Amino acid sequence: FKLPSDSFKYLGWCDLEEHGVRGNQLRCPRVREGPSEEELFFRKEEHTLKRRKQVTDTEKWEKRLQENWENCAELNLSFQDLGDLYQVENFKRILRRLIRVEKLWLVDNSLTDLSAIRLPRCRELNVNKNHFTSFKQLPKIPQIQHLSLAENNITTLSGISDLRHTPLESLILKRNPCEFQERYRQLVFSNLPNLKMLDGVPKLPEDCSPPAVRVFYRMCTIL
Fold first, then answer.
1. What are 41-62's pLDDT values in tens digits?
2. 105 φ/ψ angles, rounded to the nearest 5 degrees
3. CATH number at residue 108
4. Considering the domain boundaries, does residue 143 fall inside one?
5. Is residue 69 predicted with pLDDT exceeding 80?
């Protein structure tokens, strides 16, 4: 059986009218756009067109300005259920507008590559439970201080040195395959000398790689 909210599944949170839903009652508002009329026809969901309102270009532009993503400083866009390409593209469109965001949560969005996104002021980023396989797939985050990547699929530490020149202090890599790499903690701290905490554990003396010591052996031959 369809849920009562099924009739609103292609509406943005700000389009819900006369239903007594306030903005502070929405923890993770949807940011995706609905499918085109042609796609709805092939999905046999053309009945939803009756509820749609024809929006002029002027109204679209006014709505875009009303979103005001450029001045957003703290944002939670987790659990967006990005199952279609049009949803992913709209999601990335919003991310590109977050030029002043400082704290951003993108948990459980099935994200695979945000390397084309730049978040110039982001200090705290949570991308837990996504599908990243490499550090090179992360967005550009030059001011990052706290980064959480738990429960992704990062297999190696290749590319982690790209974060070397950031003020990164805390990093979480729990439940990634790279966590089982030999000398895992030592390798992370050697690549990120400014890092103070890894997986919730502060930097310990044993996490510092000992300096390479050259040992010379004297060998004598007994005849």
1. 777 776 655 555 566 777 666 6
2. -115, 125
3. 3.80.10.10
4. yes
5. yes
Residues 6+ away with beta carbon under 8 Å from 74: 101, 102, 103, 104
| Number of domains the chain contains | 1
Alpha carbon of 67 to those of 61, 98, 127, 171: distances in Å? 10, 11, 23, 31
pLDDT for residue 160: 95
Asked if residue 23 is part of any domain, the answer here is no
CA-closest candidate to residue 38, choices 50, 29, 46: 46
pTM over 0.85: no
Q: Contacts by 203-211 with C-beta closer than 8 Å and gap 24+?
A: 209/183
Among residues 160, 220, 150, 222, which one has the least CA distance to residue 195?
A: 160
Range of the domain at 129: 72-207
Tens of pLDDT, residue by residue over 24-35, are 555 455 555 666
Which tokens hold the place of 28? 């993770």
